[in-house]
Specification:
Layout: H1 11-23, E1 30-37, E2 43-51, E3 58-64, H2 71-83, H3 85-88, E4 95-101, H4 105-110, H5 121-127, H6 136-145, H7 153-170, H8 172-181, H9 199-211, E5 217-225, E6 233-237, H10 241-251, E7 255-257, E8 278-286, H11 293-307, H12 313-325, H13 332-362
Parallel strand pairs: 3-4, 3-5, 5-8, 6-7
Antiparallel strand pairs: 1-2, 2-4, 6-8
Helix pairs in contact: 1-2, 2-13, 6-7, 6-8, 7-8, 10-13, 11-12
Amino acid sequence: MDPADLFSSDLTTAGATFARAAMAHGIPVEAIIHPLRGPAGEPLQTMVCGFGPPEAATVLVLNSGVHGTEAFVGAGLQAGVLNDPAGFLARAPGVRVVLIHVINPYGAAWGRYVNEDNVDLMKNLTYGDVISPTDPIFLELDDAIDLGSLTDAAAYRRAQARRAAIIETHGAARVMSALKAGQTARPRSICFNGVRASWSKRTLDSILQRRLQGAKRTCFLDLHSGVGAWGEAYVMASNAAASRARIGQWLGDLAHDLDLPMDPPAYSTLGRASPGVELVAATLEIGTVAFDDAFREAMAFEMHDHIFGGRPDDEVRETRRRFRSYYDPATPEWRREAWRNAQAMFARFLDGLQAWDDERHAG
């Protein structure tokens, strides 16, 4: 099979590919229905399946679609795993695998990075009902950008001039830190962390609670795209001490820090859904292209279009296409490279997980 054929460009096809690959090996698939629908009125769902020894104490969780624009990359990697489950676990026979297919189906269907509430799930999956603080510099920057005013190129240029003045005042690193931390003050703006546990957060907690029963240790590997060189498999470990130590041991120099100023660290609260399970976490990114000024323009207009509307339909469609292309180049060559490099990185994780599992027998 051509690895490029593992990947899809719409949620319905991606879901059918996932389900078909699982059922071909007799793996049952659970579907969890989202309360909203897609742009054509189609139902939305998150799917879950697992394979490997049911009694395994060590579990690898492969999660896709936290960011909707990246969902079809992660879904393609999951389809590749399901094409040969036995081969995937050949080097780690003591490990069970759980696949969570598109935890943010609304974002995937509508071509959005965020979810139905404009929430960045990367933050919300950790914070849940906890309201994280908002940096005053973010509010200053948000006032300057004035997302609702971005109706044309001239308005965007004016906003960029105001943004540049703020960066000149505070420094690029300080402004970027405020953006990366996210905010909870303005739900109709960028970098919104949410003020309560989202549907995806509640769904993920429920999945982990059920699927990790009996487990003692798990690695939560969150599949993303956009960071790294073209087609590269680039790993960033959660800044939680246990994750950095364990994944650093497995990957050495291939493990990088997750550059998100979060307290508590990203993913570190997921273990609360399964008390008694030692959880380590990381993102596995597939690199795409450089995020340049044209990306920032597409991102700003995409958010304006979805939240405020009013621009011509053809411009909206072209903006959505450009925005998604930064996360999912969707060429056959890139998809083949993505799968090749992801396979090699999966092997490193499986070797580490099997060694972790062997520790309990040695002890």
